[in-house]
UniProtKB/TrEMBL annotation:
Family recorded in the similarity comment: Belongs to the thioredoxin family. DsbA subfamily.
Keyword terms: Disulfide bond, Membrane, Oxidoreductase, Redox-active center, Signal, Transmembrane, Transmembrane helix
Gene3D superfamilies, alphabetized: Glutaredoxin
PANTHER family tied to this protein: DISULFIDE BOND FORMATION PROTEIN D (PTHR13887:SF14), GLUTATHIONE S-TRANSFERASE KAPPA (PTHR13887)
Gene Ontology molecular functions: oxidoreductase activity
Domain of life: Bacteria
Domain Thioredoxin: 36-180
Protein name: Thioredoxin domain-containing protein
Pfam families associated with the record: Thioredoxin_4 (PF13462)
Transmembrane segments: 9-27
InterPro entries in UniProt: Thioredoxin-like_fold, Thioredoxin-like_sf, Thioredoxin_domain
Length: 194
């Protein structure tokens, strides 16, 4: 092949290669590959479809932005969020009326997690004004992950006696009377997160 033929062939080859690459990129974007480990891709979820009615929250009920926080009162990472990240969100966004934070239950660390979630529902229902102080006290009292001591009904009842404005006996009676209803709400929260 002579040099003139190579000079004519090179631009054509570059254009063909470019079209091939562009076509591959477009085709791949329309047909994303399945994960290599064989797991299915997570479905797309619109956060506006998450049902938050009745869940505890802080901030203005009509705030233009809603942040949803799923947590477990036995989870050390949830505790870290509560004490290291949430205060900045409250100061910069909740206190200014821009955001409300909705707290949803995601129980996964044993029976103490479930007990705490049931009490969470009751305190919100009976004492919404004291709810955030109660929530903070719950995370402050958290011990090792899982069923290690704090978080069962007896320890939460004891904690509730120390929180101003909360009648521990009334909360305990409410949890006993509404366990099934509260458990359904806790299960619904967890299902929303999955």
């Amino acid at each position: 092949m002579n040099t003139n033929e190579n000079n004519k062939f090179l631009p054509v080859a570059v254009i063909v290669a470019g079209l091939f690459i562009a076509g591959a990129v477009v085709w791949n974007g329309q047909n994303p590959a399945a994960p290599s480990d064989g797991t299915a891709q997570a479905p797309k979820v619109n956060v506006k479809d998450v049902k938050i009615d009745g869940d505890p929250f802080i901030g203005r009920a009509d705030a233009p932005i809603t942040i949803i926080s799923w947590s477990d009162f036995q989870c050390p990472y949830c505790k870290k969020f509560e004490f290291e990240t949430l205060p900045g969100i409250i100061e910069n966004y909740v206190d200014t009326g821009k955001v409300k934070v909705v707290f949803m239950d995601f129980t996964f660390l044993g029976s103490d997690s479930i007990d705490a979630a049931l009490y969470n529902r009751s305190v919100w229902k009976l004492y919404p004004e004291q709810y955030f102080a109660w929530r903070t006290a719950m995370f402050t009292a958290q011990d090792d992950e899982g069923d290690q001591g704090f978080g069962d009904a007896a320890s939460i009842d004891k904690l509730n006696t120390a929180i101003s404005g909360i009648d521990a006996e009334k909360v305990s009676a409410d949890v006993k009377a509404n366990t099934n209803a509260y458990q359904k709400e806790v299960n619904a929260d967890k299902a929303e997160a999955q």
